[in-house]
Write a structure and sequence with these properties.
Blueprint: E1 2-6, H1 7-22, H2 30-43, E2 48-52, E3 55-56, H3 60-84
Antiparallel strand pairs: 1-2, 2-3
Helix pairs in contact: 1-2, 1-3, 2-3
The structure holds zinc ion.
Length: 88
């Protein structure tokens, strides 16, 4: 059993939790987190990978280094947008 998965979702979700620690004045409710996640994911290219039984074929560490800087940048932009006009 294999499935196609957008690995960018995992990266953005992980990086979001890291960035959130430094965003003391930002709302951390689920709605705002999801808004940031959606905004950032719309700006970033999807990265589809084939997974089997929950394991990824792709070398994740290499992908992460390659995309992390862009991901952090888009998340910070998205945080600014959500903070300026929160939907919660
Ligand atoms: Zn909120």
């Amino acid at each position: 059993m294999t499935e196609v998965h957008n690995y960018m979702e995992d990266i953005v979700s992980d990086v979001l939790d890291e960035v959130l620690v430094d965003m003391e004045d930002s709302c951390k409710c689920e709605k705002c987190k999801h808004d940031v996640l959606a905004l950032a994911l719309n700006k970033l290219p999807p990265k589809y990978v084939v997974t089997e039984k929950g394991r990824l074929y792709t070398k994740l560490s290499e992908l992460e280094v390659q995309f992390k800087a862009d991901v952090i940048k888009e998340i910070i932009v998205a945080f600014g947008a959500v903070k300026a006009r929160p939907q919660h």
